[in-house]
């Protein structure tokens, strides 16, 4: 088995600190050996990005677009190989690895190939100035122009080792930035395949660099390097707070997509079958390891028992097993440590007095980090299982009576990433959506519009990306003013 090397300045570099093992969460077998970078190597990667920035930022947008489009084609060409790797190192089901990881990464490179060609200038109304201390009377014209930030450190999450890095790297490159990618330690090998695809597509040396490590020190170096101008991070709120402290001291730009505890507000006139299918994605999609999941169901009391029954029946039909098998719906979580964490929350829910409706017992497999999809009812807003992000296939149900109470319960959270409203009264659904303190609200859907801004309120993050909003996130605004 080949040991992976770091990618720094367009070269494949042996790591100073050796390698660590990447383990398949389903089979508990060795997938590969990931490199352990030293702090000096991380700094070298940032310096390489700094050296490459002047030329890349002046590269014509058409050339940046061509390279990103070519990278998308290479990812598509190698999609089967890449999806197999993603499944092996992340534990995602085969369908998710193909359709939601690798395919989405290719789509994001194509989207930001177009994005590189979007206008960066915004004309502003002219201003007529009377004669005064600054000169003669005249007309002052102005443009607001978006410029690249510089060197961007992209720290990505383990739940999607393709789409998450692509969603940062592609818009950053489209805007003329250079990047240092620091993928999650659990499944970093896909990021190196992405770097290979970008290099083959023609990205110049130093524009994209990838460094990894099993501990926090590599990420810390990638944040505090004096060559880094911006940090884009997806992960836990606790780590985001630490990154924010470091960035704040140096006044570095930040883009933070952090934790979530999405409220699914279900009214008594809702289509309960549709709501059940949508909420049920928490049990299956990435095995609940997704910050946008509707994990906190707040349901009007008149339909509470019916919805709980439907969710329990839905859960019972889900097939748990080997993610390589085509009919598997629920795969493992990322690691034994995370499985233990999820199970500790299940025990906490019991201790807090919540009613365990379904699940709760570890599936009987000889190997693999599997958690049973679990449903709790009779929950109260003060319970930790209701307030804290579990990041696993666990759904909690809280009843409410009035619309005002439902909104208050939904907003009673430290988080605010994505919430959801189900109601047959569309006017009410949109009225309620406007009162929810979250970065996005799904009305009778958990679907996403990939041009809509994405980000959170409160402890769910800072800034917005996706679509053209990502191009704005990875740019600074410069004012150009002239006299006429």
Automatic annotation (TrEMBL):
Q: Which Pfam families does this chain map to?
A: Aldedh
Molecular function in Gene Ontology: oxidoreductase activity, acting on the aldehyde or oxo group of donors, NAD or NADP as acceptor
Protein name as annotated: Aldehyde dehydrogenase family protein
| Keywords, ordered alphabetically | Oxidoreductase
Q: Which domain of life is it from?
A: Bacteria
Whether Oxidoreductase counts among this entry's keywords is yes
Q: Which InterPro entries does the record associate with it?
A: Ald_DH/histidinol_DH (IPR016161), Ald_DH_C (IPR016163), Ald_DH_N (IPR016162), Aldehyde_DH_dom (IPR015590)
> Gene3D superfamilies, per this entry?
Aldehyde Dehydrogenase, Chain A, domain 1 (3.40.605.10), Aldehyde Dehydrogenase, Chain A, domain 2 (3.40.309.10)
Similarity field: Belongs to the aldehyde dehydrogenase family.
Q: Which residues form the Aldehyde dehydrogenase domain?
A: 12-479
């Amino acid at each position: 088995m080949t040991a992976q090397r770091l990618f720094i300045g367009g070269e494949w570099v042996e790591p100073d600190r050796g390698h660590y093992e990447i383990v398949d969460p389903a089979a508990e077998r060795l997938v590969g050996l990931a490199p352990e970078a030293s702090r000096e190597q991380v700094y070298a990667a940032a310096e390489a990005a700094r050296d490459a920035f002047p030329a890349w930022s002046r590269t014509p947008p058409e050339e940046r677009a061509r390279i990103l489009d070519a990278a998308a084609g290479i990812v598509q060409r190698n999609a089967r190989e890449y999806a197999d790797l993603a499944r092996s190192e992340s534990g995602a089901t085969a369908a998710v690895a193909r359709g939601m990881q690798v395919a989405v990464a290719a789509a994001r490179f194509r989207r930001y190939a177009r994005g590189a060609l979007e206008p960066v200038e915004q004309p502003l109304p002219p201003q007529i100035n009377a004669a005064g201390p600054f000169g003669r009377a005249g007309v002052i014209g102005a443009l607001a122009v978006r410029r690249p930030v510089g060197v961007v450190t992209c720290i990505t999450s383990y739940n999607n080792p393709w789409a998450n890095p692509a969603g940062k790297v592609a818009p950053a490159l489209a805007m003329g930035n250079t990047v240092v990618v620091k993928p999650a330690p659990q499944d970093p090998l896909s990021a190196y395949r992405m770097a290979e695809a970008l290099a083959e597509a023609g990205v110049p040396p130093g524009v994209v660099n990838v460094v990894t490590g099993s501990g926090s020190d590599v990420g810390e170096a990638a944040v505090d390097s004096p060559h880094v101008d911006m940090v884009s991070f997806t992960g836990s709120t606790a780590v985001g707070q630490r990154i924010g402290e470091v960035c704040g001291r140096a006044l570095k730009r930040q883009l933070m997509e952090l934790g979530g505890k999405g409220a699914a507000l279900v009214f008594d006139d809702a289509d309960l079958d549709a709501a059940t299918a949508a909420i049920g994605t928490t049990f299956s999609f990435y095995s609940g390891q997704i910050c946008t999941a509707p994990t906190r169901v707040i349901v009007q009391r008149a339909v509470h028992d019916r919805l709980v029954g439907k969710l329990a029946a839905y859960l019972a039909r889900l097939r748990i097993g080997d993610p390589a098998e085509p009919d598997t719906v629920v795969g493992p979580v990322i690691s034994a440590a995370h499985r233990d964490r999820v199970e500790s929350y299940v025990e906490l829910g019991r201790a807090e007095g919540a009613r365990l409706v379904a699940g709760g017992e570890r599936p009987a497999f000889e190997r693999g980090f599997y958690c049973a999809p679990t449903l709790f009812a009779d929950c109260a807003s003060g319970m930790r299982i209701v307030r804290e992000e579990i990041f696993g296939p666990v759904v909690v149900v809280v009843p409410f009576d009035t619309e005002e109470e439902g909104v208050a319960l939904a907003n009673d959270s430290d988080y605010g990433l994505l919430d959801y409203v189900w109601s047959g009264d569309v006017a009410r659904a949109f009225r309620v959506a406007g009162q929810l303190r979250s970065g996005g609200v799904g009305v009778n859907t958990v679907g996403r519009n990939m041009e809509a801004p994405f980000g959170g309120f409160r402890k769910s993050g800072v800034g917005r990306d996706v679509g053209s909003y990502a191009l704005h996130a990875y740019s600074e605004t410069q004012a150009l003013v002239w006299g006429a």
